[in-house]
Amino acid sequence: MNYLKKNIMAFKNMFKDNNDINEKSVIGFMSFSIMVLFAVVDLVTGYLGKDLVINEFIYDSFTLMTLGCFGIAGLEKIFGKKEQN
User: Fold this and answer.
1) 20 to 30 A Cα–Cα from 17, which one of 49, 56, 64, 76?
2) How far apart are CA 47 and CA 84, in angstroms?
3) Which residues of 50-77 are buried (b: 16+ CB within 10 A; e: fewer)?
4) Counting runs of H as helices and runs of E as strands, what totals does the chain give?
5) pTM of the predicted model, to two decimals?
């Protein structure tokens, strides 16, 4: 029970302004994971002889979200250190 309470408090701390977690990297990783899942399912269904129909708009949205999140997080990491010094 103590473990669950500790994790709930850690989850709440993620939404504070002062935290060590980069939210853009978390969202980018989740989006990238969904893209990898799409690719694996497409390969499996292709191997089974069935065509997996994924709307191109949805896949492109995940691609742009992944690139945007990782790009912004990378730029913050590069240019954010100059402001702190």
Assistant:
1) 64
2) 52
3) eeeeeeeeeeeebeebbeebbeebeeee
4) 3, 0
5) 0.68
Structure tokens that stand for 40 in this block: 């694996």
Picking from 24, 9, 36, 38, the residue whose alpha carbon sits closest to that of residue 67 is 24
The tokens describing 16, both together, are: 């504070």
**Phi, psi for residue 31 in degrees, rounded to 5:** -65, -45
Domain edges within the chain: 24-84
